[in-house]
Design brief:
With 123 residues, the protein is mainly alpha-helical. The chain contains six helices and no strands.
């Protein structure tokens, strides 16, 4: 019995590469947009998931709320650059959202534009 089990394990180990996923058929991942790359670089994903809430709301939810709001892009640019009063049902902070400016992260006007354009493009 031991010999049979050992033989079977040896055959599986030898055949392992044949069962491995063929990487050549996988779709290449889409290149990151400048805004998404910036969100990674500036550590925005520490508090915001792209499609799920982490500490703060997801970027997808932020996009949904601000796309339907009159002047939502202007509101969002200001919120990203300077923080804003809390407008979310959940979250641990009363009053002020600890946006980049509050946490000491420096964002240029172009950085803010790229982040907001990317956030609003999420659907």
């Amino acid at each position: 019995m031991r010999i049979l089990v050992s033989s079977a394990l040896l055959m599986l180990a030898a055949a392992g590469p044949a069962f491995a996923a063929d990487k050549s058929t996988e779709k290449p991942s889409e290149p990151m947009s400048p805004g998404e790359a910036l969100a990674n670089e500036k550590d925005c994903l520490r508090c915001h998931g792209v499609r799920h809430e982490v500490i703060g709301p997801s970027f997808l939810e932020i996009s949904r709320r601000n796309r339907s709001r009159k002047n939502g892009d202007i509101f969002l640019r200001d919120a990203v650059a300077h923080g804003t009063e809390m407008h979310w049902k959940s979250g641990p902070w009363p009053g002020q959202m600890p946006a980049p400016a509050v946490r000491g992260v420096k964002l240029s006007d172009e950085d803010v534009k790229q982040l907001v354009d990317w956030i609003l493009s999420l659907k």
